[in-house]
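step=encode ok
step=design start
structure_in=
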């Protein structure tokens, strides 16, 4: 469905956002995870045909997005929710979505009304559709963003950091909505929140410093961290700086730290089964270690 080969993107002369990215993405829901500044947004914008790569090849449904014809073909089957979606605060959600539908070429009034009714119901905004967008909460605005991306019945839905800043209830609602959409089209979810991927994606890639450092299932990533996650029980001192503290629990007779890394031999540590967050942290530890030994620094951008 989507093939990325040796993709690079350089801003100016020094900022290397992507460094030889290779990816194949199939049907269903795919998670792209990485810290802020890892290159996720740059990759999303290239896939959406909004940004031209410096070098490499990108094919979406057989269309080369580096060409004018391929870019046009991709945009016709694409739904895109950027990190920051510009909304018109004085419009109602219904008015805004009708405007977007017209821009997307849904000119038949009967078809447009049908799509708007279905999508508003899907994102749970039917009762609030005539309210002005300036009265919407952050979570409701994100749902409007998903709704506009779904207009035109896209085959590919790209969402960039959709749950950032949302409360837990809205995050769960939005994750479930995206998972439901993955039965209808390919969904590409870009996020720095590991929990979003663990709850919704069976296939993922981790990107850091412009390079893919992991590609596989959540179970594959967890397997890599086994033997590297520990509980330090009744500890009276903070763990060594070489360990990453995932959580801290205060007890009556001391503190229990959940840590990722390799404890010193004299440390009393109990091994525990890693979760996806632990495994992501372990992977990032290894990535930073490799990067620190590299002779050429890598610049960070979105």
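sequence_out=
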């Amino acid at each position: 469905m989507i093939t990325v080969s040796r993709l690079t993107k350089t801003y100016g002369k020094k900022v290397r956002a992507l460094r030889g990215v290779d990816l194949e993405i199939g049907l269903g829901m795919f998670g792209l995870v990485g810290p802020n500044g890892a290159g996720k947004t740059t990759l999303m914008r290239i896939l959406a045909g909004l940004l031209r790569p410096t070098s490499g090849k990108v094919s979406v449904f057989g269309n080369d997005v580096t060409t004018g014809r391929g870019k046009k073909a991709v945009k016709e089957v694409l739904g895109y929710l950027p990190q920051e979606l510009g909304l018109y605060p004085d419009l109602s959600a219904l008015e805004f979505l009708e405007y977007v539908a017209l821009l997307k070429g849904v000119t038949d009034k009967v078809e447009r009304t049908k799509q708007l009714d279905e999508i508003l119901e899907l994102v749970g905004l039917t009762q609030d559709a005539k309210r002005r967008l300036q009265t919407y909460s952050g979570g409701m605005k994100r749902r409007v963003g998903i709704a506009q991306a779904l207009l035109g019945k896209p085959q590919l839905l790209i969402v960039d950091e959709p749950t950032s800043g949302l409360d837990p209830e809205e995050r769960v609602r939005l994750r479930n909505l995206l998972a439901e959409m993955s039965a209808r089209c390919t969904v590409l979810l870009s996020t720095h929140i590991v929990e979003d991927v663990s709850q919704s994606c069976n296939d993922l890639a981790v990107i850091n410093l412009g390079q893919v450092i992991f590609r596989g299932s959540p179970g594959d990533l967890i397997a890599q961290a086994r033997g590297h996650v520990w509980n330090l029980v009744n500890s009276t001192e903070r763990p060594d700086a070489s360990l990453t503290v995932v959580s801290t629990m205060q007890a009556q007779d001391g503190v229990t730290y959940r840590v990722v890394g390799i404890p010193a031999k004299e440390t009393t540590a109990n091994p525990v089964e890693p979760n996806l967050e632990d495994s992501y942290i372990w992977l990032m530890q290894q990535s930073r270690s490799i990067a620190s030994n590299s002779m050429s620094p890598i610049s960070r951008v979105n």
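step=design ok
step=annotate ok -> The chain has nine helices and 14 strands.
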